[in-house]
Amino acid sequence: MELLRWKTIISVLWIILVVNFATHVILNLLGSGMTKALLEGQISDQTRFMGAIFFFIPCLMAWLPFVLKEAANRWTSFVVGILFALIKIGVLITGFAGARSSTAVVFNLLWGIVAAALVAWYAWKMPKREA
Asked: How many C-beta atoms surround the C-beta of residue 75 within 10 A?
């Protein structure tokens, strides 16, 4: 039962990261030229595809703890959690996607970094076997 609790925590953290990304997209659309560009079809297919990938990966990662073996789940969540934290840190540092223009976007990135770091931490600390 303890292992199921850890898997559930990791899964919920991945769902939080999906919400975090959705919030990031919404915050960048509000009050920026991005809304007009989106409505006029000026957002490239490549950009939209990358957005779809960033929604898909955390959704997949929320499902995987319940279907992967413990070792595969631990390493997958650990590595992808760190990768997401590093991506969010990079966005925060470089100011990509309006990160420097809005306090709300910075706050959103910060709680996303915390959630991704928690995914990695819980994956690392997850019990190896069901007791």
From this structure: 13
